[in-house]
Amino acid sequence: MAAKNHRQWTAEPKLQPSEWVDSRIYSDARIFEEEQEKIFKRTWIPVCHESELSNAYDFRTTSIAREPIIVCRGPDNEVRAFLNVCPHRGMIIERRPAGSFLEGQPSGNPKRMTCMFHAWQYDMRGNCVYISREKEGFQDRLCKEEVGLRRLRCEVKFGGFIWVNLDDNPQVSLEDWAGPAFACLRKSLEAEPLEVFHYHKAIVNSNYKLWHDTNCEFYHDFMHYHNRVTGFNDAYFARKNQAFEHGHVVVGTFEVNYEKYEGFESRAALSFPHLPPNQWYMIDLFPGMNFNLRGSALRCDIVTPLAPDKVMIEFRGLGLKSDTVQDRQTRINHHNSIWGPFGRNLHEDLLGVQGQGTTMLPGSEPRRILHGRHENQTIHDENGMRHYYAEWGRWMNRKPSRPEEPFSEAMSVAAE
Amino acid sequence: MDPYALVRDTIYRSTLFLDRQDWTRWLAECDDAFQYAIRAWSPEINKDVTYLWLDRNGLVNLVKLLPKHNTDHSPLTRHTSVYTIDVDENGQNAKAVSSVIVYQNMLDGINSHIDAGESRLFLVGKYNDTFKIEDDRARFLSRELRIENRRLDKGSHWPI
Fold first, then answer.
1. Considering chain B, what is the average pLDDT of its residues?
2. In the list A153, A154, A303, A304, which could disulfide-bond A208, CB 3.0-4.6 Å?
3. Measured on CA atoms in the order A168, A169, A173, A174, is the torsion positive or negative?
4. C-beta atoms of B155 and A346 within 8 A
5. Predicted pLDDT of residue B52
6. Mean of the pLDDT values across residues B23-38?
7. What is this structure's pTM?
8. Beta strands A79-83 and A128-130, pairing class
9. 3-state secondary structure A168-217
10. Which residues of A touch B64 (CB under 8 A)?
11. In this predicted model, what pLDDT tens digit does every residue of B40-56 receive, in sequence order?
12. How far apart are CA A15 and CA A161, in angstroms?
């Protein structure tokens, strides 16, 4: 068919309803708010890596669904998470992105989380241990034992990542949530301690799900010159997209020919433990976290949705804690030549997701975004996105293709 | 010739070449042993991070393959101010520290209808350069661009 008129352009495609989504799920403010409540406040989110809090009293701040969070390592070596909110007047307790409580602060003592506003102090277990002029102000009506911090579910798992859940009673344990999806890499990620060597962030005008789509569909490798020349062969096209319970997808591995990109080198000498040379695995977790291992370097993307059309993506790169200085430098180069902010692929991916965001602004006409490729669940099959949006539909009780209608399990099964 | 002037002129001339994306003439200012890096201190992970590190051959390959890549073509404009130059006693080597601010002049990176023609702050940092001085020329031996930014949004394919 030639170019279409408006009715034809907005008509439903001749595909199963699970093979497209309505673009309003990327732009509607009400849907976005619902996602914060129904999904992000109830799922396990990796917020940072244990190597970012390597010593007792180290801390790291973050947020999930607009709730400020602090993660700290206690003198007992336990990592705990709390809302980063003082129960007194609602002040954010720690303003820095990271640091150590071993140093005293202008309003408080060493080894304490201190709210600078009125000098209330908390220990690493979240107990309030000091209220300034407690008796004078509160007499016996309120005491420090009654005003501890809000503790959060927190676990260190899957290669040392720190996971937080705002829900005190998660529907499933973290192990059940993500364990099966991590099975392909667990031996490699847990053979020895990992360490973060790279951090940067991007804020782009696009919906967070579109970034996750980019990470879990490889059909867009046509955009990447690097991936075409180092990848497109029979083994690449045979890679499988494997769906797991809870909306996760794992993209299977193959051997990448890095030398085919001029100036690049094999990564075989620095493969993660238990991996054959130059393998490339991708684990995409619902609702938008990504673990991407290209032989010698692990990348982790964590999304923080900011608005229907705005997302912050934090990028981390990890190697082995035992790396020599030289090996670490090589690993960093392997990571950044492709995935760094000045690397060959990440810039292209971010242009792609930004371009989608530009056409799906709040108030843009609803359009059908196609997820309909079937290639025996191999690399350019779009079953990963279909699997993701079926899970999204369950959590939101909305049909991704008709978001004003309740989700129906039948539609997700029909397409596969 | 005054070695301080040679170093200063090389830094400013190379800024113009970089702004014009005249990679060939920029690389002609660099010695065969040239090393290039973009680094930052990340308080988030309490580490120095290297965002790009290449030798001269690596840079030659990088710029050669640029036409093969999909790129944000918004031109970059660098405002460079040379702060200090130290020349060693024999006059053969020098170090320089320059402030650099990089603006992105929007073209096709987001929505050209709205953004094209607007200039946005992209990077803030310092050039830490070393030079070899011979035959009345100062050539770059190394350049470390140390940026303050860790929020880099779409990033860039280009040497900065």
1. 97
2. A303
3. negative
4. yes
5. 98
6. 98
7. 0.97
8. unpaired
9. CCCCCCHHHHHHHHHHHHHHHHCCCCEEEEEEEEEEECCCHHHHHHHHHC
10. 262
11. 999 999 999 999 999 99
12. 39
Query: What φ, ψ does residue A212 adopt, rounded to 5°?
Result: -65, -40
Report pLDDT digits (tens) over A238-259: 999 999 999 999 999 999 999 9
Helix (H) or strand (E) holding A396: helix A383-396
Angle separating helix axes A346-359 and A208-216, nearest 10 degrees: 130
In this predicted structure, what is the pLDDT of residue A411?
65
Q: Looking at the predicted structure, is the pLDDT value of residue B147 above 90?
A: yes
Residue with tokens 């499988």, as numbered in its chain:
A240
From A51, A99, A351, residue closest to B72, measured CB to CB = A351
CA A205 to chain B, closest CA, distance in angstroms equals: 8
Measured distance between the N- and C-terminal CA atoms of chain B, rounded to whole angstroms = 28
Closest residue to B151, CB basis, from A98, A198, A203 = A203
Q: What is the pLDDT of residue A409?
A: 84
Of A199, A340, A347, the CB nearest to B71: A347
* Local confidence band at B126 (pLDDT 50, 70, 90 cut-offs): very high
Pairing status of strand B137-147 against strand B30-42: parallel
Q: For residue range B81-97, list pLDDT tens digits in order.
A: 999 999 999 999 999 99
Residues of chain B found within 8 Å of residue A226, distances taken between Cβ atoms? 69
Q: Strand A161-165 vs strand A151-157: parallel, antiparallel, or unpaired?
A: antiparallel
Q: How far, in Å, CA of B47 to CA of A74, rounded?
A: 21
- A333 and B45 within 8 Å at the Cβ level: the answer is no
Distance, C-alpha A65 to centroid of its chain: 13
And the tokens for A263? 């100036």
CA angle A300, A305, A306 (to 5 degrees): 135
CB contact under 8 A, A348 and B69: yes
| Residue spans of chain A under pLDDT 50 | 415
Check: CB of residue A16 under 8 Å from CB of residue A128: no
SS3 of A206-275: the string is: CCHHHHHHHHHCCHHHHHCHHHHHHHCCHHHHCCEEEEEHHHEEEECCCCCCHHHCCCCCCCHHHCCCCC
Q: What integer pLDDT is reported at residue A412 of this predicted model? A: 64
Report whether A333 contacts A341 (CB < 8 A).
no
Q: What is the chain B residue with the closest CA to A332?
A: B50
Interface pTM, i.e. ipTM: 0.97
Report how far residue A318's alpha carbon sits from residue A159's, in angstroms, rounded to the nearest whole number.
10
Pairing of strands B93-105, A151-157: unpaired
CA distance B123 to B109: 16
Torsion angle, CA of A361/A362/A363/A369, rounded to 10 degrees?
A: 60
